[in-house]
Design brief:
By secondary structure, the protein is of the alpha+beta class. 30% of the residues lie in helices and 28% in strands. A four-stranded antiparallel beta sheet has the order 1-2-7-6, with no helix packed on it.
Length: 163
């Protein structure tokens, strides 16, 4: 048997030991009864649903010679529910999308995400922080981050002496 085959068998044995340890840990739960197991699974799914139900708008970022542009998808969010600020070298966008559902109406499926959000973007050093501008158009938040403009000097030529 080659060393690679021996290593493969050792790893396979470790994998089996790992699976056995998981089975042994869950075996007492399985023996306690179906109702308790379903309750445990239900609790885990509820916690998972709460953890993943947070709303986080998707972002696109592009760069041109004069600016960076951030686009955030924020359908259904009012201008008054959004705040944009710069914290040191980070652009921070916070906001919330509230759920506006009537309790009497019975939904069979809700896929939209609701809640508070915060997105942070690291800013490069060569920007004009005081001129950052934002606008909302058709459910998209557009943020323009202008770059610092370097003066282009006409006399930017350096003469090199020949010896």
């Amino acid at each position: 048997m080659t060393t690679k085959q021996e290593e493969f068998l050792r790893n396979l044995t470790k994998g089996n030991e790992f699976l056995e340890s998981i089975f042994n840990k869950t075996k007492p739960v399985l023996k306690t009864g179906k109702d308790e197991f379903e309750l445990m699974i239900s609790d885990v799914l509820t916690k998972l649903e709460k953890a993943t139900a947070l709303f986080s708008p998707r972002a696109n970022i592009k760069e041109t010679k004069t600016a960076f542009f951030v686009e955030l998808d924020i359908p259904g969010i009012n201008k008054s529910d959004i705040e944009i600020f710069v914290d040191k070298d980070t652009l921070v966008v916070t906001g919330k999308r509230e759920r506006d559902l009537v309790e009497a109406e019975k939904y069979t499926l809700i896929e939209a995400s609701y809640g508070k959000f915060e997105r942070r973007f690291n800013l490069p050093a060569d920007i004009e922080k005081e001129y950052i501008d934002g606008k909302i158009e058709n459910g998209v938040l557009f943020i323009e981050i202008p770059k610092k403009i370097e003066e282009v000097k006409e006399d930017n030529v350096i003469k090199v002496n020949i010896r």
